[in-house]
UniProtKB/TrEMBL annotation:
Lineage, highest ranks first: Bacteria, Pseudomonadati, Bacteroidota, Cytophagia, Cytophagales
InterPro entries: DUF420
Protein name: DUF420 domain-containing protein
Presence of keyword Nuclease: no
Residue ranges of the TM segments: 16-34, 46-69, 81-101, 116-136, 156-175
Protein keywords: Membrane, Transmembrane, Transmembrane helix
Pfam family, one: DUF420
Length: 181
């Protein structure tokens, strides 16, 4: 690809990534704010548990993907990271489906565990909003073979994404006893 074409492509991709990185959290926040829930069936009550598994697998895939790239196994790294990215998309779908069809679950823990839970939850939510931009840019740079930029972006994307997926599992395990189903 010629330089001028790449610059235009990068500009369009950057615009798209910025829009998606803002739109997704805004749409999710708006959907969470809807008081009227939609009856999608009782199967949606299993979604938090499925999402806990998805986050667990994603955390493992991120570590394995990092291992593969350190071993210079690019093909295995690519496959692993694309699997993690795909699971992230499935997580988001499951998260939205659950929250538009079920009431929020309150954390019932008392004592010292309560502020720990809320610290993890708030940092998890905040960084989950931020990480999307880094991950989308890292994927774009990899797909367009801009590996220097990909590597720079992943220095931020990997630790944030790993924190978000790992704290997602921890928060799920902490609130799991309080689900009504």
């Amino acid at each position: 690809m010629e330089t001028a074409e790449l610059v235009k492509s990068d500009r369009n991709a950057n615009r798209f990534i910025n829009i998606v990185s803002i739109a997704v959290p805004v749409v999710v926040a708006l959907m969470l704010g809807i008081r009227q829930k939609f009856d999608l069936g009782s199967w949606t009550t299993y979604l938090p548990h499925i999402n806990g598994v998805i986050n667990s697998i994603t955390s493992v895939l991120l570590v394995v993907g990092y291992y593969f790239i350190r071993q210079k196994n690019v093909a295995a790294h690519r496959a692993t990271m694309l699997a993690a990215f795909t699971l992230g998309a499935f997580f988001l779908i499951g998260y939205v489906l659950y929250h538009i069809s079920n009431p929020s679950t309150s954390f019932g823990g008392q004592g010292w565990i309560r502020p720990v839970y809320y610290f993890l939850l708030i940092s998890h939510i905040t960084l989950s909003v931020v990480v999307l931009w880094f991950v989308l840019r890292a994927v774009y740079f990899a797909l367009t073979k801009q590996f220097v930029l990909h590597k720079k972006m992943t220095r931020w994307a990997l630790p944030i994404w790993l924190y978000v997926s790992t704290t997602g599992v921890i928060v799920y395990l902490m609130i799991r006893p309080y689900y009504n189903h």
